UniProtKB/TrEMBL annotation:
GO cellular component, as recorded: membrane
Pfam name, any one: Rhomboid
GO molecular function, one term: peptidase activity
Bilayer topology term: Multi-pass membrane protein
Organism whose genome encodes this protein: Halobaculum marinum
Peptidase S54 rhomboid domain boundaries: 54-196
Transmembrane segments: 20-47, 67-87, 94-112, 118-137, 158-175, 181-199
UniProt keyword list: Hydrolase, Membrane, Protease, Transmembrane, Transmembrane helix
Taxon lineage: Archaea, Methanobacteriati, Methanobacteriota, Stenosarchaea group, Halobacteria
Cellular localisation: Membrane
InterPro entries: Peptidase_S54_rhomboid_dom, Rhomboid-like_sf
Enzyme class: hydrolase
Name of this protein: Rhomboid family intramembrane serine protease
Amino acid sequence: MSVTRSSTRAGSLRPVAETLALMALVSAAFWLVGLLTRPLAAFLFVLSPPTLGHPWTLATSVYAHAGVGHLLSNAVVVVVAGVPVAAATTRLRFHAFVLATGALAGLAQVWVGGLLTPTGVVGISGAAFALVGYVAAANPAADALGRVARRVDVPPRVVVVAVGLVAVAVTLAFSPAGSALIAHLAGLSLGVVAGRARLLRV
């Protein structure tokens, strides 16, 4: 029995460890290319308009980071929120979720933020917030709150607004100054929706 539990723990850590390795490798490549030529680094790794002009950055921008501090801070969130998610799903689904939510959060930052000023984005923080949102929405406490809301007949619109306000508050509370707020909010929202739908459950 103990062998089975150990192998389960190791299995749940594997996709998280692989994600951390990807973050380190892609970030190192980004920094190295940036030392040689910044325009090429931006072309290869930074998600920026027009996004269809260099679609590979939908993936590379998720794992590339602006600096060591940026990398480490996101790595902490990926570990803390990623381990319980990885333990409840498959390796493939975990990686697909991280990449998809990271890319969609980045697109939200570029498109919405671009309405004010053209912007580029790198980093896995959108996906990290999505992992946090998934953990928050897919746990028994969230189910209990949902049952209470139904018993007291809280209108669905009120629930949606309340969840939205909490998401905004969490985003503002845990986003450093100058960070990609729109990407963080988009990632958190995607995670909450996926968590309520138990999208990664196997």
